TrEMBL record:
It comes from Pelomonas nitida. Coiled coil: none annotated. Keywords: Iron, Iron-sulfur, Metal-binding. SUPFAM superfamilies: Radical SAM enzymes. This is PA0069 family radical SAM protein. InterPro entries: Elp3/MiaA/NifB-like_rSAM, MJ0683-like, rSAM, rSAM_sf. The keyword Iron-sulfur applies. NCBIfam families: rSAM_PA0069.
Length: 374
């Protein structure tokens, strides 16, 4: 029988301090909601618990699992999302952001949304080939597309695997419009492809900047680029003529929320032209992971943070309803929106999406079964 989400939150408390494994967002391989087996600690009298604790302090290397994807372009069915298609070259993300709403997706792979999500990365090695097949199909209609919605397309393993770069090459060949959301400076590597597309109005990039505080960033998103490095990436993109915006997401009350205006100001100074923000979301296993993190790093305000989150989520830890899950509701959610609008207007930042340029789409040639011989 499958475990329930409420049971997950209490069945296996954190055995190792969250910061025990350097450079990781969580140190626990917490169970997921589909797990069918119970696990509990047992002292056999031979020091097994001490040995287990010592082993859990050992740094965990990132493991890349290669996957041949059957499909790479996902259609959006949610009425409150502004794009039609998404591409995620990877499953899981090495950045280790403790708040990542995509962590529960590892449950479908029978992997932990905790440590596994950031150490066992599934790489869709045939993503570019699948994308070409999709775009070449007569049934395909070009629409708004976002690269990196449930994973960061430029996370550290991309430096070696270059899956995202090959995807961008196919999009460039087809002159297909797209946007990228990332918190990695690695996107600068692909400016040779992105800048010419930007000149045609085919691409926009959003850098996620959640804090300007290095100490907070180190525990909040341990393997992402440092805040100052992300600002330099905004500048590099803007200098290359790429429309670039800033995502101050997620906003966590009393943690990074006081920085909202300062982040927007720093991003605008670096060259950002637009901005948006989303309150923190705590779906499924993210909730116990995040609350463990709060108690570990901010015990003095953990209860206050969760109370404010519930104020914006109809009294619950999370609200998955369409229409409110990305905005929140109530007085505090509206106050955050008002602060964003006011600061953006003062800094000359747009808060609406750019129109998508579809007229230049050039359907690529469909690969032949035996490959191109000439």
């Amino acid at each position: 029988m499958s475990r329930t989400p409420s049971r997950i939150a209490t069945a296996q408390p954190a055995l190792v301090p969250i910061d025990a494994i350097k450079g990781r967002g969580t140190a626990t391989a917490m169970p997921h909601r589909f797990e069918q087996r119970e696990r509990e600690q047992y002292d056999d009298g031979w020091g097994s618990l001490d040995q287990q604790a010592a082993e859990e302090h050992v740094p965990v290397a990132t493991q890349v699992i290669e996957e041949l994807a059957k499909k790479i372009v996902t259609s959006n069915q949610s009425p409150d999302i502004s794009f039609d298609y998404s591409i995620n070259p990877y499953r899981g993300c090495e950045h280790g952001c403790v708040y990542c709403f995509a962590r529960p997706t590892h449950s479908y792979l029978n992997l932990s949304p905790g440590l596994d999500f950031e150490t066992r990365i599934v790489a869709k090695i045939n993503a570019a080939e699948r994308l070409r097949e999709t775009l070449a199909s007569p049934r395909y209609e070009p629409r708004s597309l976002v690269l990196g919605t449930a994973t960061d397309a430029y996370q550290p393993v991309e430096r070696r695997l270059c899956i995202t770069r090959r995807i961008v090459e196919v999009l460039a060949e087809a002159q297909h419009p797209f946007s990228v959301v990332t918190k990695s400076s690695g996107i600068e590597r692909d400016l040779d492809l992105i800048a010419p597309l930007a000149a045609q109005g085919l691409v926009s990039v959003y850098l996620s900047v959640t804090t300007l505080d290095n100490d907070l960033a180190r525990i909040l998103e341990p393997r992402a680029a440092a805040p100052a490095r992300r600002l330099r990436t905004i500048k590099a993109l803007a200098d290359a003529g790429v429309p670039v915006g800033v995502s101050v997401s997620p906003i966590i009350p009393f943690i990074n929320e006081p920085e909202l205006e300062r982040i927007l100001e720093a991003a605008a100074e670096a060259g950002a032209q637009s901005a948006f923000s989303i309150p923190v979301r705590l779906p499924w296993e993210v909730n116990p992971l995040f609350q463990d993190w709060l108690r570990q790093h901010f015990p003095d305000r953990a209860d206050r943070v969760m109370a404010r989150i519930r104020d914006m989520r109809g009294g619950k830890d999370n609200d998955a309803r369409f229409g409110t899950r990305f905005t929140g509701e109530g007085v505090w959610a509206e106050l955050l929106r008002a602060r964003l609008r006011r600061a953006a207007a003062k800094l000359g930042l747009r808060t609406e999406r750019r129109p998508v340029q579809l007229a230049l789409f050039n359907r690529p040639r469909k690969p032949s079964a035996q490959g191109d011989l000439f």
